[in-house]
Amino acid sequence: MLLIAAKTRTETTGPSRARFEGLVEKTQKQAYGLAYRLTGNAAEAEDLVQESFLRAYRFFHRYDPALPFTSWLYRIMTNAHVDGVRRRSRLRTTSLEQAGADGSTVWELPDSQPAPDRAMLDQALDETIQTALTAMTPEFRTAVLLADVEGMAYDEIADVMRTSVGTVRSRIHRGRRQLRNHLLRHSPQAYKGLIDEL
Amino acid sequence: MNCKSVQQALSAYLDQELTGSEMLRIRSHVTRCAACTAEEESLRSLKHILSNAPTAVPAVGFEARLASCLKAEYVQEKRANIKLSTLALVSMAAAALTFLALPSVQQKPIEAPKAQPLVKSDAAFGIRADQAAFSGSDPLGGGRIILATDYGHR
What we know:
Shape of chain A: globular
Largest sheet of chain A: none
Order of helices and strands of chain A: HHHHHHHHH
Radius of gyration of chain A: 19 Å
Largest sheet of chain B: 2 strands, antiparallel
Strand content of chain B: 5-15%
Distance between the termini of chain B: 129 Å
Number of helices of chain B: 5
Largest interface: A-B, 54 and 38 residues
Distance between the termini of chain A: 61 Å
Structural class of chain A: mainly alpha
Strand content of chain A: under 5%
Radius of gyration of chain B: 50 Å
Oligomer: heterodimer
Number of helices of chain A: 9
């Protein structure tokens, strides 16, 4: 029993670790891009990337090379993200209830502290889109980002999110409508400007 | 197809995730329906906005911080492995010692306790004539009745 446990812990040493480090170097910036869109700020995005790579390292012996590494990493990342959102949501909802808030949910809270690296993005586009993305249901946001930002097919998204293609299809459709309705309701001028730029 | 079912399938239609016949049916409906055309254009615009959104660039030092985080994990893993290996070795040594010690323990003959007669002689009771006594030498036997046997004096 102990020997098995020791063996499991040593699976990612030697050549496997070198391989893992190569994959980290190759995918870390791309992973950050998705993490930023999922979380909406730099600090949380960096934490999410670190957490995802740590989990990936710990379970690297389970990684099937037949699957693209990014798909496997995104599966870990989206799980970690949804877990984190639910955990924070519970904490914030509790504190809002205690403070006697007017019934607004955590999803409707504006991001009052922009991240320091926002200057690196197109400010108007990023503020408008990112605020709307942050307001989405986490599962919808993940599905929409994987489809539209990462350009993944529905079956790949289903694999990443460990669900059926039918569920992915539904999440993407409902997610896009949720995002569009949020933009029309909260930032109609900015949204119109974005459409006109197309 | 009615507007509701078409609009439910519009995202999959835009992503080309429908079968050929479904794609044709949707296209046929959209070209004839103003409401569905507007919905299709609206979703298409949103998809374009997201697809063309700039990629976030990490802050300076991001790579170094990630490398440092992973390095700390490697060190922790190494320590955990050493602990597990030591524990495994100690367990194996203990098991080996137990295994080696077992035969010497088994070779030692186990001496069965010798039964000691509780009653060596009926005479020890000093039974006199016309006296009877019970002796409880056998707890399962229900007792042994010892009757006086010397009736000579009568």
